[in-house]
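Entry type: protein chain
Record version: 2
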Amino acid sequence: MKRNPSVRKPPTVDDLCAAHQNEEPHARFVAACALQLFDALQTTFNLQKRDRRLLETAARLHDIGYAAKPDDHVDAGVALVRASGLRGFTTRQVEDIASIMALHGRLPDAQAAVSLMGRAGRPERIFQLGAILRIADALDHGHLQDSRIANIALQEGMIRVRVSAPLGSRSIERAMAKSDLWQRVFPLGIVFEARYRAPAAEPRPDAPAGEAIRRLMLAQYRVLRTAARRAARDDDEEALHDLRIAVRGLRRLLEAFEDPLRDTSAPRVAAELRAFAKRLGPARDLDVWVALLRRPRYREIFAAAPDFLAAQEQARQHARAALRAELDDASVRGMLSAFGYLLRIELLHAAPRLDRPFGRLVRKRIKEAWKHAMAKRRWAASRRSDKLHALRIRLRKLRLLAALTAPALRPEAEFMIKAVHDLERNLGRIHDLDEALKRASRADAPAGLIPALARRRRKELRRFREAWTNFATRRVERRCRAAWK
């Protein structure tokens, strides 16, 4: 009997990944972690060999819907697999794979769980495989493939997983959080033991520019997402700090590498991030203002006017509450999704075209940033707040880019970063005092505050001038320039 040419074969896993721009580095890493867990625990939990292939396939495809619907990629991916089928798998097996995939995101509520179990051929096994997938996915929380399962052992009635990860990684913390399903479906609990190591020196000078830029931004993006989530829930000072630092880093990278990213959605994402940074401004300004007022040197001024300080603290709390509401706004979630799409889909597939050595590109950008800052070095002699602040911004841009890309620069970059950062901090204190003087003049401040702030500004300005004199020498300039030569 002849085969009907009009009947199309279902796609293979590789076909599906290619057609839907799957994030292959992440997917393959998650699959490897999932299989490592499965193989180590197969005997302990009597896992079936035939389930191994289902788990591997679900791991490969767990984010297949991301390119189509970043905000709802789990449901999109499940629907896609169910609609297309998979070559080499029966209809029942495809349903099992889709059900495992569905469990890697937000866990279903009771009603949805019953529906899912009704679709699955062996629901208890599907939930166990889903629990393994959830943990494997969390171990690549940053999508950088920089964590490793070093050992899996049964000890003292618990499954202990030793994980090697770079300092600062949140993958182990996320794995513990996403072990929630495991605790429900396996008879033994699971714990993760961290073995932190120094982060690898990245990006390397010889790394392809496209991949280096993507990985740099992925690291900052993951901090941004985590900090935004934490800050939206609680009045978390550390989360707000992390949020601001990540926003600055991402904006600087988008600006510095504007040309190679021009043909992507990067310009639109940069504009959205710039607008987001402005929304962070009021809460940040009030944080700085209240922290300045609480310094011991102003204690006597407020001893006679405690109501003023209480009012400023109240305004700060209102600004924090408004910011928490904004962080949970649909526009912020949309911006984060657009950024995720840029990094996980667009840049991943555009990276091979940007194959020039990253070291050469970044040294050129650092040289340009240095020239941009030094072109206004005469502003260091100014007393005007706008010129001093503008010089600070130029120095910050130089320092931020150098700090983010230091491994790709010459060893002298560390000297330059420190020298520029010292100046930037001096100018930052002057700017904070300038803003405080403006705010105090508008807020009917208690007697003595404005003169005290003005005296402090004069002192900080003298400190900056002295630091600039030490900086603006040929010896220091030669050492700084060596960072990119």
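Comment: The chain has three domains: 13-143, 201-354, 357-485.
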